[in-house]
Structure formats: structure tokens, C-alpha cells
Amino acid sequence: MLTKSLKILNDHYQALTNEGQDIIQGLTRTPKSIPPKYFYDDRGSELFEQICELSEYYPTRTEAWILQQYADEIAQITGACELVELGSGSSTKTLFLLDAYQKITNYCRYIPIDVSRGILQSSVLKLQQKYPNFFIEGLIGTYEQALAKLKSTFAASRMIFFLGSSLGNFNPQECDNFLKKISQTLQPGDYFLLGIDLQKSKEILEPAYNDSQGITAAFNLNMLSHLNWRFQGNFDLSLFTHQAIYNQTDTQIEMYLHCQKSHQVSLAALNLQVSFAQGESILTEISRKFDLAMMQEQLKMHRLKTLKTWTDPQRWFGLILCQA
Ligand code: AVI
Q1: d(Cα 251, Cα 249) in Å, to the nearest integer?
Q2: Which atom of ligand 1 is nearest to the CA of 48?
Q3: Which of 11, 66, 81, 209 could form a disulfide with 244 if both were Cys (CB 3.0 to 4.6 A apart)?
Q4: Would you say the CB of residue 216 lies under 6 angstroms from ligand 1?
Q5: How many CA atoms lie within 13 A of 66 on its CB side?
Q6: Quick one: pLDDT at residue 3?
Q7: Which one of 169, 286, 289 would you pick to mutate in the ligand 1 pocket, going by the greatest count of ligand atoms within 8 A of its CB?
């Protein structure tokens, strides 16, 4: 059942079906790749929530620590405003922000946006109970759909936030396009709060993406199950294994699915047959690790002026508050 507090920005299933073109492109070129958005069916979103709890996966708890320490300060700087979260997932870390805004205002609008209907629905219901005086409405859709919708709606003052270093899953060109769209969506004086994972040693990074319980492996493989049901595919998950490596030159984690045996896969809904050779890999995700000062420069090029940055004592993760 869809609650009144959820809006579908577009028919997501239809949108993804049209976007099957990106699967065709990714699987017919060498090396093969699949866009990371296909991680996030409901099962994938659940697995990602489990990743966030892993001891090896430091980004979530480190960013949560920063938010816990500084959410009051963020709310003091921005004052009351409409809060829009891109890729909200379970909104767990957002509670620190919502608590902080509750201290400075009686009424607040919070708009979480995510492609995963299941997780959005359950988090909106929980948040409505916890913050009965807030207007909370979830939007099901992609970032592009969300930003297009926000551009056409007016809020007196707004803060868009994009946490968890999801920006790191964009390649440099996609990152630039995304920041351009953020800058075009915000009115002068509006705010953008960005969480980014910072550069650190391979010894910390690789275990974070190759955890000992195999949850990240399940998350990576689940992408193939997702393609199977969405595009009538016949990927055999037992023929692929997960690996994540840190590419020091590009300062990014790269996640792969390695094929263990030569075979053919078909995706009937896309009218696509793909041959896999033994040892061949599919790149499923990059997760870029940033330099705080360089990111501030990049934001500035998009007319987003940094007001303040915060990090944890180890400088593993950064939070940047900027203003349009
Ligand atoms: C969502 N995103 C920021 C995560 C990351 O760390 O790049 C996705 C992830 N992939 C494997 N573990 C987590």
C-alpha cells in the first residue's frame, strides 16, 4: 500500500525499463560494466543498510559521529528551512539533523527522496510518528527526477543534503553534472550539505569493501538477481565472485564481479545475449575518495560557497556546508 506521504515522481519501473539501454551499452563493451543504480532494488537497499552496520565499513558511523557532534551548529547556521535529502535510504543519520531542527523550529518540512519504495515507505512512517509536528513526504525517484521536481517548486529557504559519500559513486563527469544541477536547483541563499569520504590507506579501504561476513559480496551479486527479475535474465550468481580493490592512481575503490566459467547470459526483455569468458570482470561500482580542499574548489566553480567544514578526529570523512 502506498501511504499518502509517498509520491512517485515518475513510474520508476517504467523509467528503469527505458534505461535498460544503459545495461545493453555496459554489457556489450569491453571491459563490461553495470551502472551502480542497479544495486538498489528493495533487497539491495536492505543489504546496503546491513553494510552500514559492519565494523569494517567506517563511513556510516564516522559521518554519523560528525552529524551528532555538529547538527546543532548546522541548524544554527541555516536557521529553519525545508530539508531535502537525496538518496535518504533509512534516514537513520538524518535523525541528528531533524532533532537539531526541532530545537529551533516548531514546524519543518522534510522531503526524503529515494529510488527504493520499500525503505522509503517504512522510514517515512517511523519519522511521522517521531516528529508529529513536521511535514514529511517521501518522493520515490532518481536524483534527476527529484532535482527537476524541486526546481519547479518554491521553498522560502531550503537545504538539500547528500550524505554518505554517494557523490563518490559518480565518475568525474557525472559528479560535475550533478553539482551543476544542484547549483541550478538552489535559489540564492539556499544551502547544500555534502558528506564525502576522504582519502586514506588501502589497508583501511579494502576491508571496508571486502567485509569478512560477505555482506558486500551479497550486495554486489544481488545486482545480477535484480537484472534477472527486471529484465527476464538468467544470470547464474554461482558463476560470479565479488572483489573490491583500491586504485591508488584514481583514489577510488573499484568493485567487480569476476566470471568463473565461460558461459552465455540472456536478458530476454532487452533482447540481449551476452558472452562471458572465464576470468572476465564486470565493473559494478567506483567509490571515489576525496580531498576536502579540492572538493571545496570544485563546489566553488559551481557557485556553491563553503561556509564551514567538519571532520572526525582521524579526518576519515568530511561534511561541507555550502550556500548558493
Ligand atoms: C552508497 N555508496 C556511497 C556506498 C559506497 O561506499 O560507495 C556503496 C557501497 N558499495 C559497497 N559498499 C558500500
Answers
A1: 6
A2: 13
A3: 209
A4: yes
A5: 27
A6: 52
A7: 169
- Is 165 a pocket residue for ligand 1 (Cβ < 6 Å)? yes
Pocket test for ligand 1, best of 52, 287, 289, 290 (most atoms within 8 A of CB): 287
Checking if the pLDDT of 36 tops 60, the result is yes
**Rounded percentage of the chain residues whose pLDDT exceeds 70:** 96
Tell me if 287 CB under 6 Å of ligand 1: yes
pLDDT, tens digit, for every residue of 226-270?
999 999 999 999 999 999 999 999 999 999 999 999 999 999 999
Residue 11, pLDDT above cutoff 60: no
Distance 136 CA to ligand 1 centre (A): 26
**Ligand 1 atom 12: the closest Cα is on which residue?**
209
SS3 34: coil
Q: Which ranges of the chain would DSSP assign to H, the alpha helix?
A: 12-18, 20-28, 42-53, 58-78, 94-104, 117-130, 143-151, 172-185, 202-209, 215-230, 292-301
Q: Other C-beta atoms within 10 Å of 187: how many?
A: 12
Between the two ends of the chain, the Cα-to-Cα distance in Å is 38
Q: Is residue 13's pLDDT more than 50?
A: no
Check if the interface score ipTM surpasses 0.90: yes
In the reported structure, the alpha carbon of residue 114 is separated from the centroid of ligand 1 by a whole-number distance in angstroms of 15
Which ligand 1 atom sits nearest the alpha carbon of residue 59? 6
* C-alpha–C-alpha distance, residues 306 and 303, integer Å: 10
Please answer whether residues 160 and 321 qualify as being in contact, where contact means their C-beta atoms are separated by less than 8 angstroms. no
Burial of 172 (0-12, 13-18, 19+ CB in 10 A): exposed
Sign of the torsion angle spanned by Cα atoms 94, 96, 97, 103: positive
Cell numbers 550539505 correspond to 193
Between 101 and 12, residue with greater pLDDT:
101
CA atoms within 13 A on the CB side of 5: 20
